[in-house]
Design brief:
There is one protein chain. Helix content is 50%, strand content 12%. It is of the alpha+beta class. It folds into five domains: 155 residues, Alpha-Beta Plaits (2-Layer Sandwich), CATH 3.30.70; 50 residues, no CATH class; 122 residues, no CATH class; 248 residues, no CATH class; 117 residues, Isoleucyl-tRNA Synthetase, Domain 1. The strands form five sheets. Strands 1, 2, 3, 7, 8, 9 and 10 form a seven-stranded mixed sheet that branches. Strands 13-15-16-14 form a four-stranded antiparallel sheet, with helices on both faces.
Length: 765
């Protein structure tokens, strides 16, 4: 069967677009061919900085003839319906349709459509130009004299040539002829821009790939990556170094070169006083080069770096390495200046004193100065949520509240939260925003902060995604939770929630971060009071009046719920001191917390389902009031294990039977006794079930109170045999109304007992 070779060569394709563009080309062409009635055996896409290539194997030479019947309306149908049928079938007159008869429906029209197959070349010649015109580049351009015409071709960079050949392996392939905006398809491509810029005539993919390689172009991007990585590792090793691997940079660099040549550059050792992360980012961002470290080292860098050039220079790359070194030295000089500036005093210390007093900052310390300046400048976090300083104040209060719940020192948690955003005002983070947190940690250690405080400055941003690590240091945990809960609460208050695929403030990621932190660290407390307290903090805002009183009340509320008696008593007692926020407490609307709780529950469901947990078990455990994430997961695990056992499956069946009977009788209005009356139990099976219920309820209730959900399941499993025996030997709908009501009450006890652990009605099976 014939093969298709398609190459679209342009002046340049940005590295970040290449992989997706090649995939789009494959999908658009193969989808179009299949829709036109052709089939193929295999398709693979390739790309370089200047070309997108498709190698399609085993394409049928011709589409099949199509014969189909299109059923139309009755022959007695209105003219409008018949005209619609003719348009759909592509007929010009009703006489071209056939009349079929049906014994029940009578006569109706049928169109017999026959479409002869088309040659693959004809289909390709029609399809490829339409693909090129509709190509989904994120950004594209017009060029040349034709660009002034309406509907002129747009491409990521000027499209220069098109190769399109088609034919079986045993024959000479043909050029599929078409033209788009003056560019005619052919069988001629061009090699490396400098080494082999002349024309190359190609036939099919093997011929194309080998001739291009001879012309210094490696078409396969994955092979270019292998060459770069292998040569870089070998070159580093030969010089007593280990390459610091970087998959993202490797992907980018492979999209910048068609003929990779690996070289070694150098910079002065004095620059190694800069943190390794800063050196690496400086060289990566500005020169797209890899850094290296001495062999065996894990945290220090070498003053050598690895370049992936796109040319074999006559001087073996000496001038290229020298030129890259000059640029790297200039960039590292800037980075060294930033690094030293961040450790020096700010020039406006006098103006920072009010902010320093507000946050308890020490203006002798550089990082404290940066936090004071962040507050004084009034840097906006969000127009409706206040400044960064106001946000830090809320996070610090909440982190202090959370500290006892996560076994952290409250003073350290507050200190870490106060400094958490300070590095946003540093020169290094201003230049490299991706280093926020990491630089905070380094500067904190330099000024003698507690190691847990320093760690929290970096780790409170985590986890940034599903594969990112979760903080485990208690201080980091307190600040990370406070930061994410404040973000969620704030955006919920201003009704900026995620919608569909849109989540501009990464609130789903923040919710998943809360969930992973709680579960990975086995934190056993309710999120609800914290939500309520943070809502109030947003409503109150900063005020110089009675801050300690307010903080004390909110801290107490966080432990026991915002409307607990103790918290309300203190609110009343403090009324004279804090009149500006008391009405907010009294009129507090819990709907924000309710809606946010539902969002966290939904994210938890997604998290558990991604982990392979049955969705019906998750739905059976979570209720609208559930707000202890760890308890939910423990219930899910216990219920899943229980239902995997024979006792669990049988009890599930018995419980569902009891619930169904109850639901049917309640719907009919049948009386159900409020409580089981032992004197009305006539059969041994119901007396045994009653006794088993008393024991199981007691043991399960105690286990639930102790949050031992596995023990609760074991207690309920004792009901399996009595429930089975009851349904085998006892008629629920006894003629005696009192006996019937009593037996229905016994079924209600079964439903209530199992319902304390999960809603069995939501479980499949």
């Amino acid at each position: 069967m014939p093969d298709l070779l398609l190459e679209l060569r342009s002046e340049e394709i940005p590295a970040r677009m290449q992989r997706k563009a090649a995939g789009d080309l494959r999908k658009m062409v193969t989808d179009g061919l299949v829709e036109a009635g052709l089939t193929y055996e295999a398709a693979r896409e390739y790309w370089t900085p200047r070309r997108l290539t498709l190698d399609l194997r085993g394409l049928t030479a011709r589409s099949k003839d199509v014969h189909e019947e299109i059923k139309g309306p009755s022959t007695k149908a209105p003219a409008q319906a018949i005209e619609g049928f003719l348009r759909k079938a592509g007929l010009s007159d009703v006489s071209q349709a056939h009349v079929h008869s049906d014994p029940k429906k009578g006569d109706f029209y049928v169109a017999h459509i026959s479409k002869p197959g088309r040659a693959a070349e004809e289909i390709i010649a029609e399809l490829v130009p339409s693909v090129i015109r509709a190509f989904p580049w994120p950004k594209s351009m017009r060029w040349g004299p034709a660009s002034a015409k309406p509907g002129s071709l747009r491409w990521v960079r000027p499209l220069q040539s098109i190769v399109c050949t088609f034919g079986p392996e045993t024959e000479e392939p043909v050029v599929v002829d078409f033209e788009i905006d003056g560019i005619r398809s052919g069988n001629v491509t061009y090699g490396h821009r400098f080494h082999a810029p002349g024309p190359i005539t190609v036939r099919r993919f093997e011929d194309y790939a080998s001739k291009l390689e001879a012309a210094k172009v490696v078409v396969d991007a994955d092979r270019r990556k292998e060459i770069i990585l292998s040569d870089a590792q070998n070159l580093a090793f030969a010089n007593g170094l280990d390459l610091v691997e970087d998959d993202g940079l490797l992907e980018e660099v492979s999209g910048l070169v068609e003929w990779p040549v690996v070289l070694l550059g150098a910079f002065e050792e004095d620059f190694l006083s800069i943190p390794a992360e800063v050196i690496r980012l400086t060289i990566r961002a500005n020169q797209k080069c890899f850094v290296a470290r001495p062999q065996g080292s894990t945290d220090t860098l070498s003053n050598r770096f690895v370049i992936a050039a796109n040319i074999e220079a006559k001087d073996h790359g000496k001038e290229i390495a020298h030129g890259n070194g000059k640029v790297v030295r200039a960039r590292l000089s800037d980075a060294l200046y930033f690094w030293k500036t961040d450790q020096a005093d700010l020039p406006d210390l006098e103006t920072l004193k009010p902010s320093a007093e507000k946050f308890g900052l020490d203006l002798k310390k550089p990082l404290d100065q940066r936090m004071a300046r962040l507050d004084r400048l009034g840097v906006t976090f969000h127009a409706k949520l206040g400044t960064q300083g106001q946000r830090v104040s809320r996070i610090a209060d909440l982190a202090e509240d959370l500290a006892p719940l996560v076994s952290a020192d409250p003073k350290l948690a507050r200190r870490a939260a106060v400094l958490a955003k300070a590095d946003l005002q540093t020169e290094v983070v201003g230049e490299f925003p991706e280093l926020q947190g990491a630089m905070g940690r380094k500067y904190a250690l330099l000024q003698g902060e507690n190691p847990s405080v320093a760690a929290a400055l970096e780790e409170h941003w985590k986890p940034q995604g599903p594969s990112d690590r979760v903080p485990t240091d208690p201080v980091s945990v307190a600040v990370a939770l406070a930061d994410k809960l404040d973000t969620l609460t704030g955006f919920w208050m201003i009704d900026e929630k995620p919608t569909g695929s849109k989540d501009p403030y990464a609130l789903r990621r923040a919710a998943l971060g809360v969930i992973r932190i709680v579960l990975d660290n086995k934190l056993n407390f309710s999120i609800d009071p914290l939500n309520d307290v943070q809502v109030l903090r947003h409503q109150v805002g900063p005020s110089p009046a009675a801050p300690e009183t307010l903080r004390a009340i909110l801290s107490e509320a966080a432990k026991g719920g915002l409307f607990g008696e103790a918290a309300r008593a203190r609110v009343v007692a403090a009324k004279a001191d804090a009149p500006w926020w008391l009405p907010l407490v009294e009129k507090h609307d819990p709907s924000v917390s309710d809606d946010l709780r539902a969002f966290l529950q939904d994210r938890l469901k997604v998290h558990l389902r991604d982990a392979g947990v049955r969705h019906d078990i998750v739905d059976a455990v979570i209720t609208p009031e559930s707000c202890n994430l760890l308890a939910i997961v423990r219930r899910v695990e216990a219920l899943g294990s229980f239902l995997d056992s024979e006792d669990g499956r049988n009890l599930l069946a018995g419980t569902k039977r009891a619930a169904n009977i109850l639901a049917a009788e309640e719907k009919k209005g049948t009386a159900v006794a409020e409580a089981v009356e032992p004197s009305l139990l006539r059969e041994d099976a119901e007396r045994n079930l009653f006794a088993a219920m008393n024991q199981a309820e007691k043991e399960a209730g105690q286990a639930i109170q102790n949050e031992d959900f596995s023990a609760a399941m074991r207690a309920l499993s004792a009901l399996r045999e009595p429930v089975d025996s009851f349904f085998e030997r006892v008629l629920v709908n006894d003629e005696d109304q009192a006996v019937r009501a009593n037996r229905l009450a016994l079924l209600s006890r079964i439903r209530a007992a199992t319902g304390k652990v999960a809603d069995f009605s939501k479980i499949a099976g």
